[in-house]
From TrEMBL:
<protein>
    <submittedName>
        <fullName>Class I SAM-dependent methyltransferase</fullName>
        <ecNumber>2.1.-.-</ecNumber>
    </submittedName>
</protein>
<keyword id="KW-0949">S-adenosyl-L-methionine</keyword>
<keyword id="KW-0443">Lipid metabolism</keyword>
<dbReference type="InterPro" id="IPR029063">
    <property type="entry name" value="SAM-dependent_MTases_sf"/>
</dbReference>
<feature type="domain" description="Methyltransferase type 12">
    <location>
        <begin position="101"/>
        <end position="202"/>
    </location>
</feature>
<comment type="similarity">
    <text>Belongs to the CFA/CMAS family.</text>
</comment>
<keyword id="KW-0808">Transferase</keyword>
<dbReference type="Pfam" id="PF08242">
    <property type="entry name" value="Methyltransf_12"/>
</dbReference>
<dbReference type="InterPro" id="IPR013217">
    <property type="entry name" value="Methyltransf_12"/>
</dbReference>
<dbReference type="InterPro" id="IPR050723">
    <property type="entry name" value="CFA/CMAS"/>
</dbReference>
<keyword id="KW-0489">Methyltransferase</keyword>
<dbReference type="GO" id="GO:0008168">
    <property type="term" value="F:methyltransferase activity"/>
</dbReference>
<dbReference type="GO" id="GO:0032259">
    <property type="term" value="P:methylation"/>
</dbReference>
Length: 267
């Protein structure tokens, strides 16, 4: 994954100048980007709602390769990224007896390790894409984890209205907000405290910029850290930038959110 250099953190990837420079440095990626742009134009015409749009993106990507659909160019990278997420959560408070909600669980890149680690029934994965959840069930079978009885559920929003209050010790969203407009992030932060157990925490990654906030097509969104921390605080939550995640070989950054008061004592 690319390092978070000053150049990359200040780049506006939606600008024509950046696209030209990137194309000159990476000529092999020009054709795939053109294909994405054509797909983006077509899907914008037929899917005005962002969830419908991104569900169609995932259907298209999953039909070609479920591993690539969640951002892994090959099996080795798929395993490595899943291991990275899993190791970080275990090192930072996840315990076998915890109940965990995995937002955007995808095809269980990290999820299969989490299911194996957590006690029976402790894992709850949600995703907007029925296609990727079908792939997730295939991974569950491949890994022989049916007896752990994980929950895999489709959703179309992040209100969590179908989930019980105070249920989850850990809520996790990896590479979800990097594909989400600010109103989707706001919706999640407005509702996550209700489902957090006392002492619970919510970890999420995002594509960070220190320059102008921007998006590339309707697929990739870049935010400043202070924007997301302020958004969490607006909803009465404490949020902190996870500096040690920056040491991992991953292009995104991470924020941890906890409820204020007694709930924020652990985690």
């Amino acid at each position: 994954m690319p390092n978070k250099t000053a150049e990359s953190l200040n780049a506006n990837r939606s600008s024509l100048a950046h696209k030209v420079r990137y194309a000159l440095r990476n000529p092999g990626r020009v054709v795939p980007y053109v294909r994405r742009s054509v797909r983006d134009w077509r899907l914008r015409m037929t899917h005005r709602d962002h969830v419908d749009y991104y569900r169609a993106v995932m259907a298209s990507d999953a039909a070609r390769d479920p591993r690539a659909a969640v951002g892994s160019r090959n099996e080795e990278r798929w395993l490595a990224l899943g291991r990275m997420q899993f190791d970080y959560l275990v090192e930072h408070g996840l315990e076998p007896g915890h109940r965990m909600l995995d937002i955007g669980c995808g095809n269980l890149r990290a999820g299969w390790r989490l299911i194996d680690y957590l006690d029976e029934g402790g894992y709850y994965g949600i995703d907007i894409s029925p296609d990727i959840l079908i792939a997730a069930k295939g991974v569950l079978v491949e890994r022989g984890l049916q007896s752990k009885l994980p929950h895999l559920t489709i959703t179309r929003d992040l209100t969590f209205s179908f989930l019980p209050e105070g249920r989850f010790d850990v809520v996790h969203a990896h590479s979800v907000f990097s594909h989400s407009p600010i109103e989707v992030i706001d919706e999640a932060l407005a509702n996550v405290e209700r489902i957090l157990a006392p002492g619970g925490f919510f970890d999420f990654t995002f594509d960070r910029t220190e320059g102008e906030e921007h998006q590339v097509l309707r697929e990739d969104f870049y935010y400043r850290t202070d924007t997301l921390i302020a958004l969490a605080e607006k909803h009465g939550l404490d949020a902190r930038f996870m500096e040690d995640w920056e040491e991992r070989p991953h292009g995104q950054s991470k924020i941890r959110v906890t409820a204020r008061g007694p709930r924020s004592e652990a985690g």
